[in-house]
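Q: Fold this one first, please.
A: Sequence and structure below.
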Amino acid sequence: MPTWVETGFQEYAKRLPNNYRLNLIQIPLQKRTKNSDLTRLQNVEGERMLAKVNSDSLVIALDEHGQIWDSPKLSTKLAYWLQEYSTVSLLVGGPEGLPLACQQRANQQWSLSKLTLPHQLVKIIVAEQLYRAWSMLNNHPYHRV
């Protein structure tokens, strides 16, 4: 990942208190060539993602067909997630999207936008939106209405 992605992600992750730790676990993409079996590569990447998910984790799949939440709705969701689950795992697919196994494991599907966004931006946007949701829950001045 380019340095600006790591810098952007870490900027929001470090703002959260220690009991709301935000970890980014990246699964390396399989090498793609013009003759690659993209479904097989997608499934291998999905298996590696799911191997990192705790069995008791709430799983949110970031998917273009998921629900679109505004910031207040996300803060409500975050409050529930934090109250009911010890860990929340957000899954972001590769260039072909999330494989079926990841979608089936997901408890919810979240769409950031109807736009197609590059993965580099998704990482930063998710971190910022989670920080914003936390700030709303804690009456922090970051989110101004």
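Q: Good. Now the second chain.
A: Here it is, same layout.
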Amino acid sequence: MELRAAISSFLTHVRVEKGLSANTVSAYRRDLQKFEAFIQKRKLALEKIGPDDLVDFLAGLYRQKLESRTVARHLVTLRNFFRFAQMQELISADPSVNLESPKIRRSLPGYLKLEEVERLLEQPDSSTALGLRNRAMLEVLYSTGLRVSELIGLQVADLDAKVGCVRCIGKGDKERIVPVGRKALHVVEKYLREARPNLLGKSRSGGTSLFVNCRGGPLSRVGVWKILSAYGRRAGLRVALTPHMLRHSFATHLLERGADLRSVQLMLGHADISTTQIYTHVVEERLKQIYKAHHPRA
């Protein structure tokens, strides 16, 4: 079997039999398409691919200035693919079996200062339907720390304005309840009353989605990224704005004001506290400030 056909079989396997999420399958597809292009240049058949070819492919990713975390993800994809190929008897030996994962340097997440968030939230023109939707979307992202996939998956019924919380489905189809601030709720309720019905029009495709596009259908991940990027430039932010940066800002600002790491973990939907511990630099800095402000010999 040629490499392209094997990749297609693998993607069907992880989607249908393994039941992996659409986002994970898309990530596998992107990684393997990149690997396929690399192997095509070497004109190698699937069974002729060896460990040296994988090492050269990964080295090429480093030369493209990709982070070690991204390179490690590509290696995981290759390991899963070749394990599948061996189980299907498409290859006799797994070339990825003895490859070591790159050491991942945990970098501090980028986040916005409070005044930058305020400036960002002022950018949408709330007098228009799209502007009001975008303002509501920004408010929810910053107020809840949701991932972009969780945001676009929100349904109208997931928002409980009386209780002040939103229900979302995170990684691994795990459900969690996240508080929503009063300011965000106010803007979302205004959006639901004044803007969403106009955006929906006669469309039925986005009928239950909380945030819909200009044609009345559900918003896409790419659509949200483009909206945020444009507002970030208009707000004159020092860095390119991404949905994850608002998530990091949410966590950082909570910790700076005294929230404990465990509570932030629950709100972010991290399965393991070690994932949330990347924010410990915030906690340490706050403790230093408290010490300096209150210790008599500081």
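Q: Anything worth noting on the second one?
A: The mean pLDDT is 87.
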